[in-house]
């Protein structure tokens, strides 16, 4: 897997999540200013929160996967550098 493509996907999803979070905050602020809220609006907000929470969980999984891929690449590069140093020292 190309770590950059995974990271770009994670970055895009993170940006989307942040945009949705700001939208949710705006809705929550408007919600707090309302005197009486119809039950349908409350249910819509609950649905939005559930959607945001699911997206957050997915972003966390994607981020962790990309992070693990990056760690693996770093380990491989470190091993290659050590082997190259040993070969150089022997020659």
From TrEMBL:
Q: Which domain of life is it from?
A: Eukaryota
Q: What is this protein called?
A: Uncharacterized protein
Question: What keywords are assigned to this protein?
Answer: Coiled coil
> Where do the coiled-coil regions begin and end?
42-80
